[in-house]
Design a protein that fits this description.
Blueprint lengths: L3 H55 L18 E7 L9 H18 L3 E7 L1 H7 L4 E6 L8 H16 L5 E11 L2 E10 L23 H78 L1
Parallel strand pairs: 1-2, 1-4, 2-3
Antiparallel strand pairs: 4-5
Helix pairs in contact: 1-5, 4-5
Length: 292
């Protein structure tokens, strides 16, 4: 039979854990609201960028072959930008992203290609730094997603592509669907291809007039487009992380409540058994005195 003192200690410890998980749930909910608002405002901006590039190409004003960031070449080395969280305690969120990255690596290696990683977020970097070739690791950048960090990561990715370190670049991140569902998503980043976007199906009529020239405009917006893609991936992952943490902490809080109820029941049963045993000892002693 368990000791009453030990059971009481376990109950108190689990109650304290429940207080922590409840507080973490509230913090995650507050962060989620702010990050979700930023994401909802940024998504149309990212789509408009894709639309402008698609319009320029479809109008014939520019040729993709003129620009190095749109150059298609034989793929021998693939770059993978993996965006994970800096912190844990968010269920299987980081694990799912890492599994998706491992699946991608395995697929490319079967095709005879090597994969080099750029890890954004501490969890992905800590996992892959001894398991794969990591070009760069950016940690402590997911707590507060900033465009300047996205630019730094995008510049490193573009430099690797333009210098021939990689022949293609993809990004894996957590895509936010709703509070209870976030999925790993994989997208091609480089070379830039407008055929991937929904705007590619549009037919553009007439000859738009651009100032400055379409070539100069493309030189400016292509790097900016990569910046926005990286920033969007980081923002999606940050929102997904808070949603996953809120769900995980809510589940943990409920589990704490269930454990407290079970331990309280065990405590009462143990105490009742102890009282019964003491009463039996008293009765037995009284009977022995009478018979003596």
């Amino acid at each position: 039979m368990p000791n009453l003192r030990d059971i009481r200690r376990k109950i108190e410890a689990i109650k304290k854990i429940g207080q922590i998980t409840r507080a973490m749930n509230m913090v995650a909910a507050a962060k989620l609201r702010g990050a979700q608002t930023r994401l909802e405002k940024f998504r149309p901006y990212g789509e408009k960028f894709r639309e402008v590039i698609a319009e320029l190409v479809a109008s014939g004003a520019v040729l993709p072959s003129q620009f190095p960031l749109m150059e298609t070449r034989e793929v021998r080395t693939v770059g993978l930008v993996l965006v994970t969280a800096d912190r844990g305690l968010c269920g299987a969120f980081n694990t799912n992203l890492i599994k998706e990255a491992e699946k991608f690596i395995a697929e490319r290696e079967r095709e005879g290609q090597s994969v080099k990683l750029i890890c954004v977020g501490k969890k992905g970097y800590q996992y892959f730094r001894r398991r794969a070739e990591v070009l760069e690791g950016y940690t402590d950048v997911m707590g507060r997603v900033l465009m300047q960090d996205a630019r730094t990561i995008a510049r490193r990715t573009m430099r690797a592509f333009l210098d021939g370190e990689i022949d293609e670049a993809h990004v894996i991140y957590g895509y936010f669907i709703n509070v209870v569902r976030q999925i790993p998503k994989r997208e091609k980043l480089l070379p830039i291809s407008v055929e991937e976007g929904p705007q590619a199906e549009k037919t553009f009529k007439g000859a738009p007039i651009y100032e400055p020239s379409p070539e100069e405009l493309f030189e400016q917006i292509l790097p900016m487009y990569v910046n926005t893609r990286i920033y969007a991936a980081m923002l999606e992952t940050a929102v997904s992380e808070q949603a996953a943490r809120m769900t995980a902490m809510d589940n943990a809080n409920r589990a704490c409540g269930d454990m407290v109820r079970d331990l309280t029941l065990l405590f009462n049963k143990t105490r009742q058994a102890s009282i019964t045993k003491e009463l039996m000892d008293i009765v037995g002693g009284a009977e022995a005195i009478k018979q003596g």
